[in-house]
Amino acid sequence: MSSLEEGVTAIELATSGFYLFSLTYWFIETLLIKRERIIESKLDFLFLYFMIIVFIINPIIAISNDVLYFDWLREYLRLYLILFYFPLKAVIKDESTLKKFVVVFILSSIVLSVLQVVNYYLYFITNTVYAYQIITSGKGNQTYILSGSIISFLFVFYSEKLWIRILALIIAMGNLIGLISTFSRTFWVMYIVSVILIFFYLNFKNKFRFIVYLFFITIGIYLTLNFVFQDKFKFVKMALTKRFVSTGDAKRDVSVRSRYVEWDNILRITSRNSIGGMGLNYKHQFQNILERASIKYPFIHNGYLYYYSKLGLPLAIVYYFIFFGFIFMNISNLLTAKTKFMKFTTFGNFLALGVIIFTNFTSTQIHSKDCISFLSISYGITCIIYQINRKETINLHNASV
Asked: Which of 57, 172, 245, 256 could form a disulfide with 250 if both were Cys (CB 3.0 to 4.6 A apart)?
């Protein structure tokens, strides 16, 4: 089950409360007390404008569609957390500090991967009764884990120190094990695509290292899974193989066909108010093929339809204009980056955002808890690298005059 569909635990509630208070306090202090400027680009302005418009108009629409205000506010505050990229880019101003932050991000991703594998293992040994349960129990934090795996794998080629390469390789392998345990086929495919793109991005010398490192990662994953699951490993291996092979047979996949039914229903209902949408946390009702029952929930297995349905077409277009704007800013950063670290970090960030483009077709990844967290970090890194590149370009220009 996606993180968007899960309930809210006491720890999550306390953590969310802390982050929401911290972010709001930063905005109040920066704007009202220090009176500092926070808007540095058109995307910054557009995002703040978007959040204000949604806050004013969308709750009225949601309440008119029988959504409780508290339920609406919970969904809005999740979106609000992306604005953490504002204090992030305000604090980090140089490459040295950015390196430390990226290391923290990579380490946090491996922690999530370990928790993901442990949770799946505990579920596997205590709750699995039927074969299908092996592949339907472990989804969570896919975006964050995959992003950490991509960036840590790139770090293997960035550093000249052997111990850092080994550590980055172990983290990349651990994150990949975490991603495997989610049984999310779309993310598996996108990871493979990302790895192929990394191969073509590397120079000839690193291409040879790439093959060697990939061999060790594959062996390491096989031995680790064998050690963890022991006599049950053959069942996990069969489930993984069957799950991956079924990726290319979408027509016979019941879960894929259920998506089509869901999307058709969403489009039909939203057509009643395509301009304003139905409001955040509006619960759609449709026939679920998998459960053979009529179900009603706010989650939609398509991020593009999600914002169209909840916010209406105009605001959905604005939101995705911002999202793709940051992707194009990464491309600009890649062309202007001066150091190896900046280039590799930008490329990893670009790949991670690219993954969201495609995974967003089969789930509401872009509004899931882990993706919201990653987007705040990704947007922050994008802006930080943009400002550092711009500053270095100006300095070089002034030095040449």
From this structure: 256
